[in-house]
Amino acid sequence: MPKEHDMSPLAADPFGKEAYDVLKDMLSERVRPKRLKHSVNVAKVARRLAKAYGADPDKARLAGILHDWDKGLDNEQLRDRAIELKVDVDEMVLTDMPWLLHGPTAAAALSRAYPQFGADVFQAIERHTSGAADMAPLDCIIYVADIIEPNRTFGDMEGIERLRGLVGEIPLEELYFEAFKYTLQFLVSTDRVLYPATIDTWNILMRTYGHIAKEKIDIWNIPALD
Ligand SMILES: [Fe+2]
Ligand SMILES: [Fe+2]
């Protein structure tokens, strides 16, 4: 029997600590303990990032605890849920990369159940899996927090440490650019298939943030290969 939850804090003060605790409790019934710990850490780091970058810390904490709401579902369940919720995703994700659906399905389901959390929270949840070229501050916060939370134990740890060191040192959008670049490098270095929209996003980001890379390598003046 699923536990009964007192849902009143979600209506009374959706960004408050009580609402957060109710949602954390509900999440504990949806994901394994390790994932719950990850989500709690993402919420904490998101709160810290929001404070560092002048965003709303309580909203960031809420988006953080909710971002992996659907991570406990398997590929088949994610596909079914995406279709049922009429989530707008392309065919390739649906057939070849269903794990990317856990952001969009969570955002769709939660926006229907708790519209009071607001469009910015749902967008941050939706975008945490693939990023985007036009990320709002809260989108950037959740994307980065997901990667740098202290329990993150897989991936290129040197790259993660570098990202952690950049917090507060560079603007939030640039921090996101660096985090997106980290993800892309990790995916390529581990021989993963890339979602085509990810490459489009990278190309758009390079137009905006190429100057950052340019300081390290003059990408516009690399001699042509013979
Ligand atoms: Fe996720
Ligand atoms: Fe996550």
Helix content: 55-70%
Mean pLDDT: 92
The best one-word shape is globular
Gap from first CA to last CA: 69 Å
Number of domains: 1
CATH topology: Hypothetical protein af1432
Q: Supply Rg.
A: 18 Å
Q: Indicate the CATH architecture.
A: Orthogonal Bundle
Question: Please, what is the oligomeric state?
Answer: single chain
Fourth CATH level, the homologous superfamily = Hypothetical protein af1432
- Low-pLDDT runs of 5+ residues are 216-220
**N-to-C SSE series?**
HHHHHHHHHHHH
| Bound ligands, each once | fe (ii) ion
Percentage beta strand: under 5%
Reading off the top of the CATH hierarchy, the class is best stated as Mainly Alpha
Sketch the major β-sheet. Answer: none
Q: Counting H and I runs of at least 4 residues, what is the number of helices?
A: 12
Task: Output the structural class.
Answer: mainly alpha
How many runs of DSSP E, i.e. beta strands? 0
Describe the structure.
The chain is mainly α. It has one domain (8-221): Hypothetical protein af1432. It is built from twelve helices and no strands. Helix 3 packs across helix 9, helix 10 (157-166) packs antiparallel against helix 11 and helix 11 (172-189) crosses helix 12 (196-214). It is globular. The relative contact order is 0.10. Bound molecules: fe (ii) ion (2 copies). One fe (ii) ion is lined by residues 67-68, 71, 102, 128-129.
Strands, helices and their partners?
Blueprint: H1 8-12, H2 17-27, H3 33-53, H4 57-66, H5 75-84, H6 91-96, H7 102-113, H8 119-127, H9 137-148, H10 157-166, H11 172-189, H12 196-214
Helix pairs in contact: 2-4, 3-4, 3-9, 4-8, 4-9, 7-8, 8-9, 9-11, 10-11, 11-12
The structure holds fe (ii) ion (2 copies).
One fe (ii) ion is lined by residues 38, 42, 67-68, 146.
